[in-house]
């Protein structure tokens, strides 16, 4: 199982997550995502990409995501993070060979 760790505390905004995610998964190698650097900060493209790796047995670890704060969506950044978390959560529900873990370090 390949493990990918993303620390929200290291990001100024949700856009930094998309940039690191893009690099971590080498998305540029997937032909359908040519010209989609950083997935255009789009949850729709994130969701679409997750299908491509659904058989890869990945473990995604999100550090520093306070889900209670994110779900309140008091800021635009938390609004976007809430969508990211929902996309990733739905992914592991639909493809149980993959996992999503939250750590509050």
Map the helices and strands:
Layout: E1 2-7, H1 14-24, H2 43-52, E2 58-63, H3 67-72, H4 76-94, E3 99-103
Parallel strand pairs: 1-2, 2-3
Quick rundown:
The protein has 105 residues and is an alpha/beta fold. Helices cover 44% and strands 16% of the residues.
Structural class: alpha/beta
Question: How many runs of DSSP E, i.e. beta strands?
Answer: 3
How many alpha or pi helices? 4
The main β sheet shows up as:
3 strands, parallel
**Whole-angstrom Rg:** 13 Å
Helix content: 40-55%
Strands in their spatial order, largest beta sheet: 1-2-3
Using the alpha-carbon principal axes, give the shape.
globular
- Average pLDDT taken over every residue: 95
Termini separation: 22 Å
Q: What is the H/E string? A: EHHEHHE
Our estimate of the beta-strand percent is: 15-25%
Low-confidence stretches: none
What does this protein look like?
The protein is α/β, with parallel strands linked by helices and 105 residues long. The chain has four helices and three strands; from the N terminus they run E-H-H-E-H-H-E. The protein has a three-stranded parallel β-sheet, covered by helices on one side. The longest helix has 19 residues. The protein starts with a strand and ends with a strand. The mean pLDDT is 95.
Which short descriptors sum up this protein?
alpha/beta, 3-stranded parallel beta sheet, 4 helices
């Amino acid at each position: 199982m390949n493990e990918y760790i993303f620390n929200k505390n290291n990001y100024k905004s949700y856009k930094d997550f998309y940039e690191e995610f893009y690099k971590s998964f080498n998305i540029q190698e997937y032909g359908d995502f040519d010209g989609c650097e950083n997935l255009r900060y789009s949850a729709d493209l994130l969701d679409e990409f997750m299908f491509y790796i659904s058989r890869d047995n990945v473990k995604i670890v999100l550090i520093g995501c306070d889900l209670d704060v994110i779900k309140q969506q008091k800021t635009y950044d938390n609004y976007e993070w809430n969508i990211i978390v929902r996309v990733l959560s739905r992914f592991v529900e639909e493809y149980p060979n993959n996992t999503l873990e939250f750590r509050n370090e």
